[in-house]
Fold this sequence. Notes:
By secondary structure, the chain is an alpha/beta fold. 57% of the residues lie in helices and 18% in strands.
Amino acid sequence: MLAAREAHREKMLVALSSVGAAVGLTALKLVAGLLSGSLGILAEAAHSGLDLAAALMTFLAVRVADRPADATHNYGHAKIENLSALFEAILLLITALWIIYEALRRLILGEGHVEASILALVVMAISIAVDVTRSRALLRVARRLGSQALEADALHFSTDIWSSAIVIGGLLVLRLAEVWHLPSWFRQADAVAALGVSLIVIYVALRLAHETVDALLDRAPEELLQRLEVAIRQVEGVSELRRVRVRRAGNKIFADVVVAAPRSFTFEETHALSERVEQAAITGVHAHAPQAEADVVVHLEPVATAEETVREQIHYLAQQQGIRAHDIRVREVGGKLEADFDIEVEADMDLASAHAAATRLEEAVLRGNAQLQRVTTHLEAPTATIERRQDVTSDYPEMVQHIRQLADAVAGLGSAHDIHLYRSCRAEERVAGAGPRKAGKRREGERLASANGREEELDLVLHITCAPEIPLSQAHLKAEEVQRALRQEYPRLGSVAIHTEPPE
């Protein structure tokens, strides 16, 4: 915020100093032109008068352009700089046409008397010195802060340098014609100089008008577009660049980018890709216009890629239908692929609706991959409620020991550890209502009977260690083998969670 205020203050000061310089030059040229009768100097006075108007417009434009965006000007107020430059160009064209008219009258009708005095030459020399100083100061600040209004003002002052030089040349020719008694047509040099000034003014005005109209009509700089396209296509993760739009307002460049990205990306990956694209675009803008402010909006569109796996495809299609898919298994049978996986639906959904949702997902997966010949889903209804359990591991020491032996027989001696058994709190309440339990620990395989005689279920959690260098798939197979052995021995076990880890 402080840097922005300092930049605004510097722009205001240099614009105000240009107003002061334009006032002084206009007054000086007007006096010298009236005293000498030089149309060239009067043309320069008119030119400086327009520069004064332009400097005032630039001052006001710079003052308004730095206002922040509001509810009615969402992109800020920087366009007023371009509008101010367009008005300056129109004023310059009107002045040039008037100068041409007066110059032709003098050339054709021979009207007007010009005195090539020392005063006129001194005034024009002073004008050149002031113009050089102001144009350099304006251009330096304009390039550093990216202000088009100040750049246009600097162009005006630099134009004055050449036009003043032409006027001095015309006055010198007149002086030589008087001293050396040259032919009378040499005395028309002032009018010819005025025509030269007008041609320069017309060129500058048309050039300025072209630039400002392009900015007002949001014409995109071709070089910047090409630079952005190259930079964005090189960003890792971008599958396709679909659109780049650029507009400029004052020293701000707005870029609108649409890219295609792998649809299998997670939200975090998509956000990270969006930031990389945005940074690449900002870098491209600064390479084209170092002092410009860049405002980049990135829109990502999901697309299937050649690198997308069947599992990623199934995950994406399930998410599109609001279904969570997991435990995806893909196998090759007779040169074709088959897939089966678990899907989670709402627990209170009836079977017909759940089956219809599963069928829609299966059909979408088959349409999306011609290599798949069969898709099978398994319906699950997970609950979002928190289950109340009580740790009863200490009540079953022999069962815990037997579980450890079964796991060690599969995963290796000393592998099983951190074993926990849990009972539902409702079951515990039923047991408490049935009367006091026997003192001491439960025997191996013993089931705690509830008040109505039904067997209760116990949830099991245990950890097993595996060699750290084995693949994860092999560790998973060991965990499944342990789970099968446990369920064969204890068919009434509830949930079984086995955590695999390397040795500490």
